[in-house]
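dumping the sequnces here before i forget
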Amino acid sequence: MPIHAHTTASGLIVLAEPMAGAASAAVSLRVPAGEVHQPEDRQGVAPLMGEFLCRGAGGLDARAHAEALDRLGVRRGCGSSSRDFELDAVMLGVNLDEALAPLLDTVTAPHLDDAQFGPCRDLQTQSLDALEDEPQERAMIELSARHLPAPLDRHPEGTRAGLAALTAADARAFWAAHAGPAGSVLAVAGAVDPEAFFAAAERLTAGWSAASAPAGYEVGPTPVPAQHHVQDPSEQVHIALRWDAVPANHPDAVLQKAAVAVLSGGMSGRLFTEVREKRGLCYSVYAGYGGHADRGGVYAYAGTTAPRAQETLDVLVHELRRLHAEPVGGDEFRRAMVGMKSRLVMSGESTSARASSLSFDVAVHGRPRTLAERVEEVAAVTPGRLRDFLDANAPGPEAMTIVTLGPRALDAPGEPAPAGVAAAAAPA
Amino acid sequence: MPIHAHTTASGLIVLAEPMAGAASAAVSLRVPAGEVHQPEDRQGVAPLMGEFLCRGAGGLDARAHAEALDRLGVRRGCGSSSRDFELDAVMLGVNLDEALAPLLDTVTAPHLDDAQFGPCRDLQTQSLDALEDEPQERAMIELSARHLPAPLDRHPEGTRAGLAALTAADARAFWAAHAGPAGSVLAVAGAVDPEAFFAAAERLTAGWSAASAPAGYEVGPTPVPAQHHVQDPSEQVHIALRWDAVPANHPDAVLQKAAVAVLSGGMSGRLFTEVREKRGLCYSVYAGYGGHADRGGVYAYAGTTAPRAQETLDVLVHELRRLHAEPVGGDEFRRAMVGMKSRLVMSGESTSARASSLSFDVAVHGRPRTLAERVEEVAAVTPGRLRDFLDANAPGPEAMTIVTLGPRALDAPGEPAPAGVAAAAAPA
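..and the predicted 3d for all of it:
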């Protein structure tokens, strides 16, 4: 399907992708109000906005605003990420026209009243505290904190000190400074008439502005990758690691994703085969690629019992390195590529996935990409291109940050024992 | 879309729902090999099959079988529930013909070799142990264990004793006894030619049989509902409760779902408004309905900090009772119904959701239901019917089982203090 594009007088990029046969319409509004833009001593204001924005907007109090959207069956959510803040919603296409005003008001005209601030801060503090019960998530957060330079290393739920210091006025100032039409993207996919949508977006965002132009952010010194342990009474040892890779807008990003698909793209992927099937080391093991316009990374996770943890780390790192050292087989390559292509085409059947992709692509690539373009990019990956990429991008021994969280620390990853021997030695 | 149906010579019910414009085809094969059918002293064999079935099938060893499916981009998973065992898969429709044989082999012709059993049992034991790091999930499991009669009260991951006693021969016997064409359903939705699919299913399941006819299960005495506490060093107090409701195939089940939608169907739902917005008591609170052919239940969950836990329980139970005591407003009713209808129509855009619904409906209703039929059922709910249902089905004070898991026990739910007072008293 072609993507229709429009830029409003206020500078908001608006995209619409009609999807044949869709009954739903999904909306993604992405604004540059991510965690990197928080004041250093007010960390927590970005995720808190996910709650504070829902406390009344556009002349309707919290209750009336929630009712206006529920009356139209609009399922929605909003929250911050490192660089952005995204409001996403999905509804029946027939309700899009009427829903758009109260939906956009959430971001463009929130009340942010003093009286509503206290409960929002309490809830955000609880959200931070609740992570104590989520050791896997904490391991991944610690990994970012240890690997990335400031301010990309920030905790996604904020800090206790930042939340304690935060006031309603701080939250209003943060939103006014960063949430404006310039640098933002509004995307819709599904049952939508692009021209009508553009006209409505133009009208509904006419009075929207930010206090200043979209801000960049200063990146601090990059930490030296190392191995870290977080002592925790958790049952499992949670192993998380990552290293730097090409940014998501680099032409080689698709090759990095193909490499990850060889490791972790299906049940015959190398990690699944070596860690889970051959050695029975752990139930959950995966690798992934994550990237934005300025940087990218490969990460991996495994959760296992303490007696199996060292072998799991050894095998995991061995497989990550072996990918760059030994050729990817012809059949292995084809499986990885078929998997990538299938997942991509299937994601194109979800209006929500398409809307979110459209706004993400503008943030990362500076323009939307059609599903067909992305499928062609995958189809253009050849064994030779992947081989060259893997040769040129092997992570050095000093490149990986490793975080373990659990009842005991691990040694640096070593050469794993052969599969049969280790499996026999593991406790039943 | 019409649903096409076929019954194979061996007695397998096969359903196909072509979906216009879909590129993917999703498959759900549901067999009556759920946890209730496990031998009392071999609990864990049903969930273990989720791993053991993936260790070679139809003449292909584990590796070759995984590769055969990955080569066609088939994303799949399988696992047990209380009554059933489900294999689900999604792929591009163009690959369905070729993928069907290795996919069905997983269930109809698994190798279940002795040599593969040990690692599978190790992984299943790890899966059970890993729940120690998931207090919310443990609270919900404890709730079922406390509320339901045997064997519906069983732990979904099995027991340590059951897994320790389990042998490969036990697993083979379990599968041979319960996984046959009679009582099973194979459903496909999306890009599919029904007649070609029926012919393939007929051919591929011709040699499939179970050792015996589908078994029922004896239900033990129903526990007396009560309040239970599980002492745990978790950060939050996890509150879970449930009471009995009409079975899913009862004509009033749609009314029970409508009642739950008033509580928890959107951001203006009563639980969200009273517990989260007005009092800021907790981040996560919801209610739901779950049912099968023989019984149903309403459940609710809230996770909060220890100082807020008693008030959260009080408000939660108060709201659950108030639903039956005070009329549902006209606008409140309409919001709940629009939400139900929207979610239903939107679920119809996912081939995976449709395939799973088709096989579930046969298990519960004895026949598949079209999306249109389900939408009509929702449209036929009136305020008066809901009112009558709520009047007749108020849970008595002795009906609720309550489980709390966390650092301290709670009192029985009492009348909550007014919102303003309690909020002021809560620690910031």
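The longest strand of chain A covers residues 237-245.
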